[in-house]
Amino acid sequence: MNKQFISALLLLCSISGFTQDILISEGYSMRNDDTYHLIGKIKNQILLFVDKFDDYEIIAFDEDMQEQWDKKIAFDSKRAKILHVTPSRRDFTIVYRYNKRGKIYTQAVKMDEKAEILSMDTVDVQSTRNFFSKSEVLESEDKRYLLIYETEMETRIHARVFDMQEMETIWRKVFTLQDMDINRDFVEALLDNTGQPYFIFNKDNRKAKREENRFLVTVYNDKTGRADNYEFSMKGKVWFDVKFEYDNMNKRLMAAGLYSEKRYNEAKGYFYMNIDLTSPDDYQLDFEEFDSKFIVRAMGKSADKINGISDVSVQDIVLRRDGGLLMIVERNREHERRVSNYTPPYASSHVDKPQVDYHFEDILLLSVHPDGSLHWAETLQKRQFSQDDNARFSSYFLMHSPRNLRFLYNDEIRPNTNVNEYTVNGKGRQARNNVYNAQKENIMLLLPSAIQVTANELIVPSERRSTLKLVRIVY
């Protein structure tokens, strides 16, 4: 039986040939405190939102990446903080926050393709509290709903869900957690296409208490006004890394992760979890150990000395229509070292400046059947190294196309590098291609910050010497 990814990943007979167009905008000077958001493509225009601390601007480009117009945007406060920008086919919504007279206002404004205001709404009003955490924002898969939440101390979550189609807040709720430390136990939050959130925690994920190791899921139903809590045992295993996803098609809570045994810093194999919250006691949890050949491909020459894979994290999950999934794992690590700087004249002492080395290496792909067994496993080889850049140019961008998945990455983390890609089809067949050489344009692509705007095109920001450019890649 053929397997299909939700992203419309189809089986291919050949994936060897391709062509693409590369279009680059003019450069824009950016200050250190300037930020920007790629809005996306609306009615054949590429829109960019620029936040200059106390000044806001929308810039529009045509499909050749030539600037068409720019427009200043005014919010309720000149010191508004942008929380999120979400596009649709005809408009886009900006959610921002500002303080006024001891209150924190969260506001949403919807604009058309010409940056004209269509509607506005107040998402929430709170009292000013200095002990709130940073706000986190999540979109539903269909981009209709937005979950905005903060934590208060270690035991409370302040959450609200906003409907960006109807421009109204669906609900607000404060969750008080029992016997829980959010800073220690929080794993992930999800939002499904009905606006229902899932807050996921973990308890006792350590060898000494492995038999009690479990995930806890809090689900809020705004129709009943109840927050239901569920527990799912890890059946005596200790997990190394995990990522959850909500399957809106099959209405399941899914998880894929790596588990360890003797060495906590090595992944011995993978686990697959499939949860139907209408019958939570019948949840599925399967484990499969990596075979030695896969470990050798992942670890190279050192594989004969160890029995697992180190320096790995689960980066993405791609859901399949049949209830299976593709787990995307990346090998990455960082190393901090201290460098003694030169001591200036008359200074009493020198200063040790920390420097961080970032290594982002191979991508490991594990396609898993709905019964938890392995369909196929592949390794995409790459070697990326950088220093003191927070790894902003490293890793990859995952593009979903009608025929395959594309993993785009910078071959080296430096100007004038090659941009390469791996294409992978539903059977795990792969091909490596060169997409672009940046030498002529003197650009550095932030591929992890790219956005896909149609089935065959993406927009990638480039930052080089305080200059921002936008790059449009069309297949």
Question: What does this protein look like?
Answer:
The chain has a domain at 33-191. 3% of the residues lie in helices and 55% in strands. It contains two helices and 36 strands. Strands 1, 2, 34, 35 and 36 form a five-stranded antiparallel β-sheet that branches. The protein is globular. Mean pLDDT is 90; it is low at 1-18.
Topology:
Layout: E1 21-24, E2 28-29, E3 35-42, E4 45-51, E5 56-61, E6 67-73, E7 81-87, E8 91-100, E9 103-112, E10 117-127, E11 136-139, E12 145-152, E13 156-163, E14 168-176, H1 182-185, E15 186-191, E16 197-203, E17 214-221, E18 226-233, E19 238-247, E20 252-260, E21 266-267, E22 269-275, E23 284-289, H2 292-299, E24 309-310, E25 312-319, E26 325-340, E27 352-368, E28 374-380, E29 384-387, E30 397-400, E31 405-410, E32 418-424, E33 430-437, E34 451-454, E35 457-464, E36 467-474
Antiparallel strand pairs: 1-36, 2-36, 3-4, 4-5, 5-6, 7-8, 8-9, 9-10, 11-12, 12-13, 13-14, 15-16, 16-17, 17-18, 19-20, 20-22, 21-24, 22-23, 25-26, 26-27, 27-28, 27-29, 30-31, 31-32, 32-33, 34-35, 35-36
> Considering DSSP H and I runs of 4 or more, what fraction of the residues is helical?
under 10%
Uncertain segments:
1-18
Q: What overall geometry do the principal axes of the alpha carbons give? A: globular
What is the makeup of the main sheet?
Answer: 5 strands, antiparallel
Overall residue-averaged pLDDT value: 90
The secondary structure category is mainly beta
Descriptive tags:
disordered N terminus, mainly beta, 5-stranded antiparallel sheet, 475 residues, 2 helices
